[in-house]
Amino acid sequence: MSWAERVLNTLSVHGHRVTGPRRAILEQIMHYSQPFSAEQLFRDLGGVGGPIGRATIYRTVDLLLGDGWLSRVHWRAAREASNGHDHAYVAVEQGLRHHIVCRNCGVVVAIAGEQIDVLASQSAEHAGFIYETCSLELYGICPTCQLR
Fold first, then answer.
1. For domain 3-146, which CATH number applies: 3.90.226.10, 3.30.429.10, 2.30.30.40, 1.10.10.10?
2. pLDDT tens digits, residue range 87-135?
3. Residue 14 carries which DSSP code?
């Protein structure tokens, strides 16, 4: 089952409508190998006069972000992808909020972070906070760029 199918199944189970535009948005997201912005998604799906309106795309991105199917990334290439905004998005499996980002080509890989979550929870508790969640970005050079 593809990422888009898993997302659609989960949306349906949680009472969200599974529409043609949502399917198209999810299929387009699966084609990105680097961070993308909502505006880039809008342009790639036809832009002004295209079959899917900007509001639908932004609402769907917000829904996917809130449900954990997209993760926001902050870094130089993300700003370029989002036309100067401070963030862009990557598709992830629910619960994966940590990433390794290649500083050279911009590829983003989601990573499991159980140990990171334990450390964050302990740190929050030590500071008197009630831990809720965390997101971590690691930066380096991917295997492909290392060969160049």
1. 1.10.10.10
2. 788 887 766 667 788 888 877 777 777 787 788 889 889 999 988 877 7
3. T
